[in-house]
Amino acid sequence: MGKKTFLSIFSLVFILLFVFLDVPLLLRLSFFINYLLLWFITYYNIYIEKRFSPFIGTFVVFNLLFFVAAPLVQISSIMQRGFQGTGKHIQNLPFSEFGVFRANTYILIFILTFFISYLYLKKLKFNFNINKRIPYNNTPLVLVVLAVISLVIIATNFSTIVFQYKNDFYKEVEQTSLSSYLMVQKFLFFIPLAGLFISHYYLKDATKKTKNYFFVIGLLLCFLLFVLILKNPLTEKRNALGPIYITLIYLFYRKSLDSNFKVIKFMFFSMVLLFPIVSIITHARISLREIVSKENFLAESAKTMNIENAFNSLHYDAYPCFLATIDYCDRNDITYGKQLVPVFFFFVPRSSWHDKPEVTGFKIGNYLIDSYGFNFNNLANPYVSEAYINFGLFGIILFAIILAMIFVWQMRWIDSNDRLKSIFAFYFSIYLIYFLRGDLANTYMLILSTFVAVVVFPKGLYLLVNYYAKK
User: Fold this and answer.
1) Contact predicate 404/457, CB 8 Å
2) Rounded CA gap, 196 and 194, in Å?
3) pTM for this structure?
4) pLDDT, tens digit, 9 for 90 and up, residues 195-213
5) Structural domain boundaries in the chain
C-alpha cells in the first residue's frame, strides 16, 4: 500500500465518522479542526520528515483514536439515547456541549504547542556525540550471566507463572502486594528481553561463524523462550504485550518498520483493527486455561462486539477522563504540581507515607464515585489531563513542550550507535500509546523499570564482567 492510498483510507475512515455520526454541529467542527491538524502532522511525518521518528506516528494515532474517533462515537451514542439534558458519558459524568468544546480547545492548544516545539527543538544542535561507538566486550560471557539470572527468575517465580496461566490478571494482583507485583512483572520479567536484544546484535555484527557465534544462537533461542514464558501473548496485559512484540518485529524484521510511513501505517491499522481483537483476550476476566477449553470463546466474543460497544467501554475512557478532570478542577481548583509527587516518588510505599497523594487515575475515579455515583476508581488519566490538573492551561503548554523535548531526545537515541538505547527508544515509541493514555505515575514507573531492565542492568553487567575479566 502506497502513501497516497493510505492517506485516502486514513481520510475516508474519519470522513465517514464526521458525516454519519449524530454529533452537534459545533462539536463536530471542533473535532474536525483537531483532526485536520493531526492530518497535517501525518502528512509531514510521512512526506517531509527526513529523520526516522516513529514517536510522531504513535502520537498521531493515539490522538486520532482516543481524542477524535472514540469521543465522536461516544457522543453520538449519547445523542441516540434521546439526550434531553440528562445524557452521561461512560463514567457517569453529565454530558455538556460547552465542556466538550472546551476540552477540544485545550487539546488543540496541546497538539499545536507540541508540534511547533518539536519542529523547533529538533533543529537545535547539542554538544554531545551521539554516534560514539559504545564498546560491548565479552558479550558471550555477559549473555551467559543473563541467561543464568533469567533461569533463576523463572525458578523463583514459577508459582507466579503457573498462577498466571491458570487465573486471570485481577486475581493475580489481589494475591500479592502491588509493589511486589510490579517489581516482578515490570522489572525482573523484562530482563530476558535484554538478553534477546544483545544476542541479536552480537550475531548481526559477527563477521565470522566461530564457536561463540553458534553458542550465542543457542542463547538467543533460550532468551526467546524465556520471553514467551514470562510475557506470554495470552496472559500479559496489553501495556506490555504490544510494545514488546512490536519491538521484536522491528528487531528481527527491521525493513517492516524502518520508516515513518511504515510505522504510522502499522500503528493505524493495528490500533483500529487488531486492538479490539486483542482486547477480547487481554481484558477478558478469564484464564488462559479457560480460553483454551472454550472452543468458541473468540467467536462468541466477536458476536457481541461492534464499533459502538468497543468505544463505549473503559478501554477508551481517555477523553471522558479528561472531561472529568476539567470538572474536578472547576470545583476544587488545580493542584499546583501536587499530582507530580506520586509520579517522582512512586518508589516510596504508601505504608511508609500515609499522606502520599493519590495517583491521578484514582483521584479522578474517586471523584466520579463521590460526585456522580460511578462504581470504579482505577481509571487511566491521559497526559494532557495530567498537565491540566497540575497547572491548568499553563500546564497544557508546559507539558506539550516537555513531550516534544522527550521526542527529540529519544530520536537522538534511536539514531545512536548505542544499541540498547536505540532499541529502547523504539520500544518507547510504541509504549507512547499507553504513556499518553496514562495515568502518568503508573506509566512513568513502568517505562522507567523497563529502561533499568533492558539498558541499565545489562550495562552494569558489562562493567562487572569486564572488570573481573581483566583480573
Assistant:
1) no
2) 5
3) 0.87
4) 999 999 988 887 778 788 8
5) 3-121, 139-289+413-434+444-469
